[in-house]
Amino acid sequence: MSTVANWQQHFLRVGRGGASDYSQAMKACTAQITALFEQADAPYSGIDPAKLREWITGVELSTQSPSSLERMIEEVAALIAKHSIVVQHPHCIAHLHTPPLLAGIAADRFASAQNLSLDSWDQSGAATYVEQHVSNWLCRLFGYDAAADGVFTSGGTQGNIMGLLVARDWAVHRISGHDVQRDGLPDYHGRLRIIGSAKSHFTLRKAAAIMGLGQRAMVAVPSHADGTMKIEALEQTLDQLKQAGLIPFAIVGTAGTTDHGAIDDLAAIAEIAKRHQTWFHVDAAYGGALILSQNKHRLAGIEQADSLIVDFHKLWFQPIGCGAILLKDAKNFRHLLQRAEYLNRETDDLPNLVDKSISATRRFDALKVWMTARSVGVDALGSMVDHLLAQTQAVARLVAQQDELELLAAPHLTTILFRYAGAIGASAIDDFNRRLRTGLLKAGHAILGETTVDGKIALKMTILNPCLTMQDFVDLLDKVMRFARQLTEGSPSHTESSCETVSGAAHV
Ligand SMILES: Cc1ncc(COP(=O)(O)O)c(C=O)c1O
């Protein structure tokens, strides 16, 4: 066989028979994934992480004798997939990390097989129109008019960076006519400030650093105990910054803080932003999905945002990564526009979405939202969100009813902040809860989040799986409390086998 003929087996090709190797590989993947899910009985296999690292790092990548793809699929299933976190397991509940909808997985399959790139029309064709259509639809959903526009992002981090970048360049141009994209930061850049709440996402600080403003440019307004921004403090902060000769150019409202799920008073922030002539950015990475639900009113004011971001890989149940940024005035995308002779010429009569993005090559993630909206339906999606909100309240009540557990905050969206507080001295409680979380994780029994609430180490459940029942939470809390009791009775020296006892007992 010629070398080319040998290589062909590794590709999906056009023409008769060109997809047969692909078809076989996908069939093998599907069989392995099916077996994996049918057999998964824990959120993590419980293998010692040190042993796992040893296995994985012992694999020779520069091999002179590569395996067949079939063999490789088996190896990945046995070595990697089996010992990875099972997001779909009812007791995997730590992060804003969703079990993906089948429609999204199917869309990913098209996206990977076709490998379209959304930077230019000549690398995408229909896909460009799909993304544009979904973006326009999102603009209408969030209450923007025809002047608005959007583009897909890899997620909330990229969205926040893009939103603040546009805000900075818009503000600097308005203040001094300076073009940051062309000329770099103005000489007064050290005075530029962004305001968010104390609970706003760390990627805003990251954005400030990346934008050359330094993390100090991110000013935190105090939050109420429930995680929402203190609006009166926002006014004071603006006044203080201005009096100190600083330039607050953007205010960020959060629609769903990562820990509390708190939604800032967006309408109040919009009014203040307008009065102070600052950009208003809304980080709706988490709570944006409420726009589909009966709880839509909780986002009131979002339609006044100059920019907003949504993550579809959170409460829209999409495979990672999938997000979007929307701008109220599409003209502001000009701050992201760079031309390349080979890619997006001014003379092109077909749209090149790279004009609006900080990425060049970009996945066809919009198809996930398209296929989901058309096959699951927006009403069902909204109902899932409403269900999760209601279920979270019920789980919070369940936590509050347990003598050994302490609910640390009333939930706003779908997170529960709590800790184990049975028979532990006050000075040891933080360390105990840390050990409780890592013990449960490493043994593969439950994957809970950990954060800090009012200086206390808190455990966190992030409820993002619409398939769970209340019994799943009863079992989970039972497991957590049993394991905690074992820890208080003298840390199990061999956590793995101790957990097996706990788990067995919990299911009797
Ligand atoms: C409120 C908020 N904003 C932004 C982000 C960053 O999003 P991503 O992880 O998609 O980059 C997160 C992530 O959890 C978040 O909770």
Give a brief rundown of this model.
The protein has 508 residues and is an alpha/beta fold.
Intertermini distance: 60 Å
How much β-strand is present in the residues? Answer: 5-15%
- The named CATH superfamily of the domain at 379-506: Aspartate Aminotransferase, domain 1
CATH T-level topology of the domain at 379-506: Aspartate Aminotransferase, domain 1
* List of distinct ligands in this structure: pyridoxal-5'-phosphate
Average pLDDT, all residues:
95
Structural features:
single chain, alpha/beta, PLP-dependent transferase-like, Aspartate Aminotransferase, domain 1, four-stranded antiparallel β-sheet, 16 helices, disordered C terminus, binds pyridoxal-5'-phosphate
Topology (SSEs and partners):
Blueprint: H1 3-8, H2 20-39, H3 49-57, H4 69-80, H5 102-114, H6 126-141, E1 149-153, H7 156-176, H8 180-183, E2 192-197, H9 202-210, E3 218-221, H10 231-243, E4 247-254, H11 266-275, E5 279-284, E6 307-311, E7 323-327, H12 366-375, H13 378-401, E8 405-407, E9 415-420, H14 429-443, E10 449-453, E11 456-462, H15 470-488, H16 495-506
Parallel strand pairs: 2-3, 2-4, 4-5, 5-6
Antiparallel strand pairs: 1-7, 6-7, 8-9, 9-11, 10-11
Helix pairs in contact: 2-4, 5-12, 6-12, 7-9, 13-15, 14-15, 14-16, 15-16
Bound molecules: pyridoxal-5'-phosphate.
Pyridoxal-5'-phosphate (PLP) is lined by residues 96, 155-157, 160, 201, 203, 254, 256, 258, 283, 285-286, 311, 323.
